[in-house]
Amino acid sequence: MKVHYINISLFALPLNILVYNQRNHNNTTLNTQTKRSLCECELFEPANYDNDPQMKEVMDNFNKQTQQRFHEYDERMKTTRQKCKEQCDEDIQKIILKDKLEKELMDKFATLHTDIQSDAIPTCICEKSVADKMEKGCLRCGGVLGGGIAPSVGLLGGIGEAAISAWKPVALAAAKKAAIAAGIEAGEAAGIEAGKKLVIQLLQHFHIDKLVSGICEKISSARHYNEVLNFVEIIIERRNAMCGADGGTLGKDMCTKIGIKLGTLKPDGINPNLPDRDAVTKVLNGIAGKAKTNAEAAEAAKNSTLTAEITEQQTAAINATYTSWQIAITASVIAILIIVLIMVIIYLILRYRRKKKMKKKLQYIKLLEE
């Protein structure tokens, strides 16, 4: 309690006298924090708001939080508005589609002529859409491919097989004919060469090559081995020149051998036998005859061998061509069949879809009638 006393110096001395009391012996004095009150800040003066740093910080934080909240609110509103707009558009499209479907069904119902009790598919005579026209085109295409082309594929394959089967014997006959012609030509050339070789050997056997120098080369370059008959006069002339009474340039022994070989002298080498012309002609005719026989044999052998070789080669080539054509025709037929099968499957799918669509239309019509 606070008691005032007046002393002689005339001033007031406050005395705090604590009265001892059993009831407040446990009381403790709490330290109170000093706080600013609004009255101290002069609340109604704007200058204090602008100059106070703490107030500025509070205001800035408030503005930032407020702007952030508004921004988040705008974002949420945008998303909500977009969802609402999409939902509204979807609802509007559903309503429009429903109205359009009802109108279309009513129009088709007005133009359809069908017997509902017999489950017949109605025939719509109204204007078709692009999808309906395309579907009908695919149906016609699939029907044509499935019903028209598929049966004809086998016919085409049979025609191709028959054509190449008929071509093969003709080609083989032509190849054999060409092989025979080539064999004859080659055989003739081989026979001439064989005849020339035999003529040269016989001329050497009769020592005529010693009388007429270079006769073998002339026979080799001649067109035919029979040209040896053209040397009768030359042989006689050269023999008379080279085999005189004293033996000439060839010597008596060589001239005697030539005379015996040609037949102008008898085997004893003394007595004459045939005149020079007759003897030389006879010897050259014999040489030509032997050459002809040898040439014919060589020609026949070459002809048969070459004909067989060419025939075998042409037959192999024709068989290879026939096989390749057969494979090509088979592959073409298989490819056509696969295409036709795919088109038939498409046709059946479109047909099923069309029937399903028409049945659905029929159900709508029944619902409208009810």
UniProtKB/TrEMBL annotation:
Keywords: Membrane, Transmembrane, Transmembrane helix. It holds the Pfam family RIFIN. The chain crosses the membrane at residues 325-350. InterPro entries: VSA_Rifin. This is Surface antigen. It comes from Plasmodium falciparum UGT5.1.
